[in-house]
Amino acid sequence: MNNNVATTLKVIAIALFVCGFIAGIVFGNQFPRTVVSGTAHRPIIEEAFNWGLMMLSWISALISGVLLLAIAEIIKLLQESVLMAKPAIEELKSTYYTAENYHKR
């Protein structure tokens, strides 16, 4: 019962988790937050790590990855239900869709 689509979606979701984590740290460092302090005559401009951008990246990667995992699980469960229903469907076809039963309707 190996489903290639579900497995591919799970791999993509895990890669999204890892890349989102790394990207959050990189974005927080590459796009620093500017802090202005001091007086109007002597402003002090400092750059600090952008925690908000990092958290935004992490949360978006988390939500996207969880949604992909959920879709993969739904696909897997649908395949399992179809495989479980196949014998019953074949039995119904053989019982009710014979030539004699079809003409009796």
Structure summarized in a few sentences:
By secondary structure, the protein is mostly helical.
**Tell me about the biggest sheet?**
2 strands, antiparallel
Q: For the largest beta sheet, what order do the strands appear in spatially?
A: 1-2
What value does the Rg take, in angstroms? 28 Å
The percentage helix is over 70%
Return the structural class.
mainly alpha
Q: Determine the N-to-C terminus distance.
A: 38 Å
Secondary-structure element order, as H and E? Answer: HEEHH
- Count the helices. How many? 3
Average of the residue pLDDT scores: 87
pLDDT below 50 for ≥5 consecutive residues: which ranges? none
Q: Work out the strand percent.
A: 5-15%
How many domains, as an integer? Answer: 1
Describe the structure.
The protein is built from three helices and two strands. It has a two-stranded antiparallel ribbon with strand order 1-2. With about 100 residues, it is mainly alpha-helical. The longest helix is centred in the last third of the chain and has 46 residues, at about 50-95. It has one domain. The chain is about 75% helix and about 10% strand.
Descriptive key words:
75% helix; rod-shaped; 105 residues; 2 strands; two-stranded antiparallel sheet; mainly alpha
Write the layout of secondary structure elements.
Elements (H helix, E strand, L loop, with lengths): L3 H27 L2 E6 L4 E6 L2 H46 L2 H6 L1
Antiparallel strand pairs: 1-2
Helix pairs in contact: 1-2
